[in-house]
Amino acid sequence: MNVTILGIESSCDDTSAAVICDGILLSNIIAGQKVHEAYGGVVPELASRAHQQNIIPVVEQAIKQSGKSKNELSAIAFTRGPGLLGSLLVGSSFAKGLSLALKIPIIDVNHLQAHVLAHFIKQSKNENSAPKFPFLCLLVSGGNSQIIAVRSWNNMQIIGQTIDDAAGEAFDKCAKVMGLPYPGGPLVDSLAKEGNYNAFRLNKPQIPAYDYSFSGLKTSFLYLLRDKLKTNPNFIEENKSDLCASLQYTIIEILMDKLRKAVKDLNINEVAIAGGVSANSGLRKALEEHAEKFQWKIHIPPFAFTTDNAAMVAMSGYFKYLNKEFSSIDAVPFARMII
After folding, report:
1. Has residue 167 got a pLDDT over 80?
2. Is the per-residue pLDDT at 70 higher than 80?
3. What pLDDT, on the 0 to 100 scale, is given for residue 339?
4. What is the Cα–Cα distance from 142 to 136, expressed in whole angstroms?
5. What whole-number distance in Å separates Cα of residue 247 and Cα of residue 200?
6. How far apart are alpha carbons 29 and 65 in whole angstroms?
7. pLDDT tens string 264-280
8. How many CB atoms lie under 10 A from the CB of residue 226?
9. 20 to 30 A from 18, CA-CA: which of 205, 273, 294, 318?
């Protein structure tokens, strides 16, 4: 009998639904929210309202595109946390209501674990590119920067994480200071390709073990702009590409320094990246260079699975379904949750 999972993702500002059958992705629909661009960041109340508008058509389209009917669904997986509480409530409430109507179980999914398990999504029957256990995963996004030791699909340990800000936040906040529109990370990546990464030196924090810190980097970047603008009001515009290249280079150096140390100390050469920042071309190139230099076996996700998406939620739900790990109807979402 086929196992068909409907996944629902609503942790931040993307409403997404996906259908996976026996581990193979059949559909993955994502509806973004343009409303936040005017505010330079996600506004939680506006996000939850947009989810309410998007959730029904997104789920309907995902089921239709999958070629399955709602009566063929085995279970519904939903993101329980971490994320914006109002947004999570929309997705979890819809999942509960649909599960009661269809009389099928629901499965709560950890958003961070889902990003890691995105590497196991198959887009065709013969695909076999998933990491082998154990492996290390560098999870980098707007809200998280972590190194995770993954020993099985349900055995993950955070061995290092940011003690303050995340790498994705550093990208976006520094981009905002330069006057770039939200989200700034992709624009920094694009401009960095035209710049000189040695143009400006930024502070790199000295944090013990495998932990990260990016607040000092943001301060260093801010002070650089402040001092240069005193003598040249057009400094940012005249040096935008070099500033982006230097910023991106420093963030990637910080990330890779700790990842390299973890690989060496734990003697695990199977390495993956995940999360929104894993779409960054500089980070992907750095990982490829490390793989060649240190004989790592690397796993870089397709761009479609780097940002928040329901395919990774459905994949996590599929594993949990096989293990009969179902959720109770009174499970409540959490804004903060660890692996």
Report:
1. yes
2. yes
3. 67
4. 20
5. 8
6. 9
7. 999 999 999 999 999 99
8. 10
9. 273
Q: Quick one: angle between helices 167-177 and 185-192, nearest 10?
A: 80
Distance (Å, whole) CA 74 – CA 44: 32
pLDDT tens-place string over residues 18-42: 999 999 999 999 997 666 665 566 7
Please tell me the CATH superfamily of domain 135-301, with its number. ATPase, nucleotide binding domain (3.30.420.40)
Statement: residue 235 has pLDDT above 70: yes
129 pLDDT band, cuts 50/70/90, is: confident
Return d(Cα 333, Cα 43) in angstroms, integer. 19
Domain boundaries, the chain: 4-123+305-322, 135-301
| Residue range 117-127, pLDDT digits in tens | 999 999 988 88
Considering the segment(s) 4-123+305-322 as one domain, its CATH architecture is 2-Layer Sandwich (3.30)
Buried residues in 19-40 as b, exposed as e (16+ CB within 10 A)? bbbebebbbbbbbebeebeeeb
CB atoms within 10 A of CB 133: 12
- Torsion angle, CA of 191/197/201/202, rounded to 10 degrees? 50
325: left (phi over 0), alpha (psi -120 to 50) or beta: beta
pLDDT at 140 over 90: yes
DSSP state of 245: H
Amino acid letter for position 270 = E
Are both 4-123+305-322 and 135-301 of the same fold? yes
Q: Are strands 145-152 and 155-161 parallel, antiparallel or unpaired?
A: antiparallel
Residues 6+ apart with CB under 8 A from 27: 17, 18, 19, 61, 62, 63, 64, 65, 66
- Give CA–CA dist 35/15, Å, rounded: 14
- The pLDDT of residue 33 is 67
